[in-house]
Structure formats: structure tokens, C-alpha cells
Amino acid sequence: MSGADARVLAERLAAMSDARLGSLLAARRVSAHVGWRDFFDAADALLAPESLTTALRQLPRDVLADLASRRPIADEGIASSLVDGSGSPLPSVHRALDGVDLAPARHDAPQPADESAAARAAERAFTTLGALADVLVAALATPLSRVGGGSVGASDRRRLVQDEVVRDAEELDDLVALAEAAGLVRPVDRAWLVADAGEDWTREPTRRRWEILATGWRDALPAGLRTREGGWVPPSAWVDAYPLDPAWPERAASALRLAALLGLIAPDGTETPWATPFRAGGAADAGPLAELLPGEVDRVFLQNDLTAISPGPLVPALDMRLRAMTVRESHAQASTYRFTEASLSSAIAGGETAEAIRSFLSELSLTGIPQPLDYLLTRTAERHGLVRVSVEPGSGHTIVSSRDHHLVETIGVDQALRPLGLVREGALLRTRAARQTVYWALADARYPVVAIDDDGRTVALHRRRLAPAAEEDAPEDRYRAVIDRLRASHGEDAEAAWRERELDAAVRAKAVIVVEVAMPDGTTRELTLEASGIGGGRLRGLDRAADVERTLPVSLIRSVRTA
User: What residue stretches are annotated with the Helicase XPB/Ssl2 N-terminal domain (predicted)?
Assistant: First the structure.
């Protein structure tokens, strides 16, 4: 790095607005707690070899080629810290790219998929939509654990693979990556939580599900893969898009896998008909894809063995509601759902009523409601609410009560409920545990429990833990302390500040420098000094020509250069 480069960059940084400066610091991945004192410190740090290498790794091939060829480039993002006022690369940046092969990437148009390949891609996309819906439903019940690298935890991987929701762990991570790109899930601490948009997505029609996922995937593609028209460059160019980033080949492979999961790329690598206009910058349109998807049904067969058989893929909104009152036993296109007392109790606790369930099943069933199912629903509804969980206003303790005192006695001695610390008090049970904790412990133990609010009304409790709304600070707010410190240190006389910095660096290096000094008669004189110290507004150095130690007021020094 040269001092001239640092000075040019320091002046550019000082001239930026707070918003633009904050965006640049975020793009360069600067810590919000960095201890820079002034803009010269910032320029030195951003042009340091390690920092420069990190910045260049984030640039796509075309931008790097322009920098290496000294062609002016767009002054935005990371590039604004690598170029001068005309957009030309700083000499230190050009030197860092010396010897790097940056031949322009070839953008060969993809081959169109034939009918057979397109049909297989459509089947893959349909499977992806179903599998992701299953993953989100599982995550709504129990958030997926998240390890350091962002992958799903090993126990959740095993569970979802064993339940045949996904084929393997890699597919699970790819589905979560798709969901994150579309804003359906969000990492919170050490878990993947479903966002409000994710819960809504599970009830969307199939075509809309695909369009949301595909749009999210496209918008999340790195800048080096996007085109000015809003689409993306041909996939054949992806692997070479970021030639200085050693991690890029793995990221490019991941992007290609996600494109295949969405049916944008056929198994033989060709491009599907619905992908072509999308790649060119058009909106995601599932119309051509929908023509190849299996036909959805809106009716099921209800059977005497308390199962519901769907003769084909059930319309998503109906599928989600049916799942809320059953246990899904198979994930094939012809799915099986089983009614149990626990599943019906859970549905009623979630806000359904016996009448609403009967009405829904009557409209859904091709075979009416079998007597065994009707009897199970009646019995479950009658028993529901036999155990009541409320909060005592004065003490805040949770109270468990029932009109069936024998049932209260049973709960009081149930060994599975001992961790709640239930204490018998007449016909009641009292505990310091939270109402929701007590409610779900009783529900898991198969007791017909309801939660009661302060007004004595039944309230539906949900186990779902949704991700909180994203609260992303603007970069300028995140770097407010840094920006304010840099602004405060930036005086009107930047020339004098830079000169003092050069002198300080020369003293630390014991360098021999040539200083131009203003003389009392108005003339200037050049002196060659071996810089030895600076302080109190004065520079000390050995004038070897005269073999004397000189002390010069810094205010009289007009320029400094290396001897």
C-alpha cells in the first residue's frame, strides 16, 4: 500500500454521506467496534494487504477484470473503496491483481430441456414443495436446531430422514436454504424458526408456493450471477464467477442444487421452459410448470379404521387443516391421515369445535363420516375441557382443577408430571410452573385439558414458536459510533493532518525524508533529514549534509517525500 493511495481513499471516505459510508463498511465486513481514530486510519486498514485480499475475494470476475485492466468501474459497494474519484483502480489494488488470470467468462446459453427432461424437473419441483411443507410443519411444532455453520442439527436430520420427509441430510439443508432465501424461516440463536410468511406459505396454492420460492432464490443470488435485466447468467458460467474466492465453488454448487430442486434445471443440465423467461428477467410464472404437475384433489375417503385416504395430492389449504386434526402416516401422493383422540383434542384445543370439524369432514369426504369416527369425535369433544388450567390472580400460581375430583387425584400422583411440582390443595392442584408449561405437560400426558384466561374463558394455546419480525438496523445506524468518531476527527485542514501523519510514519520508520520548509523571507527550502522524533508541533531530524540536528515547526513544513 502506498501513502498516496491511503490519502486518496481517506478523502473519498470523508466525502461520502453517512448512509453510503455505512453501506461500504458493511460490505467490507468491518467490525462495528473498530477503533479507528480518523479517516486515514480507516484508509490504511481498508488497503492493508489482508483486508484488500478479503475485499477482492468478494468481487465477481467481470469487476476484477476491469480493475486489472485499469478500466473505470461503477463506483458502488466494495468497489468504492478500491478506486479513485474517476473510478480507476488505486495502484495498490492494481498491483494486488498482478498475474491473476481474469479472462472474461463465457456465457453460453443453456440448452432447452426436451419433454422428458422437463417432466422429470417438474416432478422434482413438486417433490420439493411437498418436502419443504413437511419441514415447515415439523419446525412449527418443534424448531429445528441449528449448528455453527448454519446446518440443521444432527438429531433433527436423523428424525426427518427416518420420517421420510427428506432423502438425506444434504437435501434437508438445501430445503432450509431455499426457505431462508424466500423469508420463510429465519435463524434465531441456535435454531431455525418459521417466520409468519412461512406459516402462510404452507396454506398457499401449489403454483403460488413455487413462485414464492423461486423469486426468493433468484433475489438471493450473488451479484456476480445476476444480470442487469433482473435475471441470472447461464449456469455454465457460475463456477468461475468469483475466481479469487476459495469457498465459491462450494457456494456455486449449492446454488445449482437449489435451482435443480426448483425444477429450473433439468436432471441432464438443460433449462426447463418455465426457467427461460425467468432467467431473462421476467417474473416467476408457474403456469408452464403447473401443466406437468400431478392433479390435486379436494376430496378424501374417510374409512371405518379412523383413517382418511387422499387419492392424490390434496389441495394445500385442505391438507394443512386436515393435518391439524390427524396424524399423517404417509408422505406419498396418495397420503394417509389417521384420527386419534389426541389429534382431535389438539385440534379442539387449537380453536376447532366438534361442529366445525364435522362440517369440514362432511364437505371433504367422498364417503360421509363413518360411525367410528363420529363416535370418537363426540367422545373427545365431551371429554375436552374436563381438566382446566388457569392462573390465580393474587399469587400468580397456576391452578389445575376439574369437576371430576378423581381425575385431579390421578394427576396429582402421576409420576410423569412430578417435575411440575403440583401440590394438592383441597379439590385443586397448585404449582409455580407457568400455565403454558402445565398445559402442554398435561396435553402430552393425554389429559383432556383446556387453558382458562383471567375472565374464565377458554383460550387456545399454540406450541408454534414463530420467528420474531426481522429488525435490521440501517448500516449507518450500526456504524454510528465509528462514523461519528471519524467525522469528529476530520478537521478543515486535511492537508496538514495528512502531512503530520506522514511525518509520524517517517519517525517510526527512522526514514530519510525530504521536507519542503517555508522560510521567514517567503521562500521555501528543501532539507533532507533522518527523522528521529516528533512532538509539541515540532519535527526533529539529523541533517546529514550539515551534520547537525535540526528541529522544525511542523506548521512550516509544506510537503514531505521519501528521499
Answer: 301-424
